[in-house]
Design a protein that fits this description.
Length: 156
């Protein structure tokens, strides 16, 4: 949705068949490592954790540091939190930190907490399923002439 000056006011995006994609990637990885799906998932976990920790060590220094050292980072990401399911990119998971890892280089002060142990208000389990689906997320109704109070998806 754009305002009168053509600036984006709000947007809604869906990655169609995202769960299907993740399962397909894990199957492909299983074939490439000649292993089972769970071995592939373990390999994926190790690779993602290593990537996130490398990014942390490079960009999250000084006040932005989240982990004591690389070992503490790797141990946390591989044992303290789950890899995450396809709908958990915004929850306390490794997949969520993998998404935010790509943004760290552009603004470490803003994004380092998101890959750290706390999840920095982004990678957190702060809503139940019911709270998530009933949240009045959008400020503007998506449908002209329909008041936002009529439908939770339409706005506040
Ligand atoms: C894959 O694993 C199986 C069972 O461990 C083994 O018999 C086979 O030789 C392996 N294939 C390759 C290409 O490594
Ligand atoms: C890494 O940090 C942990 C605490 O998070 C500490 O117990 C460990 O000794 C540290 N390892 C090294 C090599 O400094
Ligand atoms: C809705 O409005 C509030 C208050 O201005 C703002 O903080 C919030 O980011 C807005 N939400 C969206 C999805 O634009």
């Amino acid at each position: 949705m754009w305002d009168a000056d053509g600036r984006i006011m709000q947007y809604d995006a869906t990655f169609r068949w995202f769960g299907f994609l993740l399962d397909t990637l894990v199957e492909a990885l299983a074939t490439s490592v000649n292993g089972t799906a769970s071995q592939a998932t373990a390999a994926l976990t190790q690779r993602l954790a290593t990537t996130v920790c490398d990014t942390h060590d490079q960009y999250c220094t000084g006040e932005n540091q989240q982990y004591d050292n690389s070992t503490a980072c790797y141990n946390f990401l591989t044992t303290a939190i789950p890899l995450g399911k396809d709908y958990e990119l915004g929850r306390d998971t490794l997949l969520c930190r993998e998404v935010h890892e790509h943004m760290v280089q552009y603004d470490p002060a803003l994004h380092c907490p998101h890959i750290g142990p706390t999840g920095g208000d982004y990678c957190v389990n702060d809503q139940t399923y019911a709270q998530k689906v009933l949240q009045k997320y959008f400020n503007e109704s998506w449908i002209v002439g329909v008041q936002s109070t009529e439908d939770k998806w339409l706005g506040n």
